[in-house]
Amino acid sequence: MKKARKIVIKPFKQAPSVPEGFEEKAWKSLEVSLLCLQNKSESAAVSLGWEELYGLVTDLCHQKKAAWLYELLQKHLAAYVERTLKSACEEHGILLMESAVFVERLVGIWEEYCSDLLMIRNLCLYLDRTYVIQTSNVASIYDMGVGCFQATIQTLPPLEAKVTSSFLQEVERERYGETRNHLKSLVRMATALHMYTKHVERPFLAASEVFYAQEGQQLLESASVGSFLLHVEKRLAEEHSRVTSVLDGNVITKKGIVQ
C-alpha cells in the first residue's frame, strides 16, 4: 500500500505587494465618486461600482492607511461644506432671503448633506468599524461629518445670526395665526450642531418675554378680566403645543416659556 503523499505549501518567495502609487490612485477614485454623490452628477471618470469602492476602503485599511484615509475624508467633507455654505451665502444670497425661504433652503442643505453622509458612512463602513472603534478620541464618520458642518457654520457669524432671526420671525408669525413649516427641522438641525441653546433657546425665551409683556399690557388696557384670563389660557396651550411639537419637548425651554 502506497503511503499518502504529503502536500507542502511553501510561502511566496517574495511577499505580495500592492502596486506602486496604489494609495493615491485609490483615494483619487474615492474622491471623484464622493464628489459625484454630493453634487448629484454622473462622471465618465467614475468607472468603479459601489462594491469596488468599498473594496478600496477595505484594502487601504489592510495596508495600514486607515488613519491617512480618515484624515483625507475629513478634509474632503470640511472643504465640501465650506464651499456649499459660502456659495449659498455669497452666490445664492441666502442671507438676504425672507425668513421662511431661508429656513427652507438651509434645512434643505443640511438634510441633503446628512443623507449623503449616511451613504459615505456606509461606503466607509469597514473604516468606521475598525480604525474608528479601535482608536480613542476619534469620532465616527457620521459624527465627524456633522462636526465639519458645525465648524464651518461657526466661521460664518452672519449665517448664525440669520438662523436666530429667522426662527424668531417664524415663531412670531405663528403666534399671529400663520402656519409655518420647517421650524421643527430647523430646531433639530440646531440641536445636532450644538447651536440650540445659544442660537434658538435663549433668544426665543428673551423674545417671548418681550412679546407677552407688550401683549399683556395691551390686553390689560382693553380687555375684561374674563377675556384676559381666557386669552392667557389660550396662549399657554399654544406655547405648550409649540414646545412639544417644534422644540422636541425641551424641559428648560418649557419651564422658561411658562414662567
UniProtKB/TrEMBL annotation:
Superkingdom to which the source organism belongs: Eukaryota
An individual GO BP term: ubiquitin-dependent protein catabolic process
Annotated InterPro entries: Cullin (IPR045093), Cullin_N (IPR001373), Cullin_repeat-like_dom_sf (IPR016159)
GO molecular function, one term: ubiquitin protein ligase binding
Domain Cullin N-terminal: 27-249
Family annotation (PANTHER family): CULLIN
Family membership: Belongs to the cullin family.
Protein name according to UniProt: Cullin N-terminal domain-containing protein
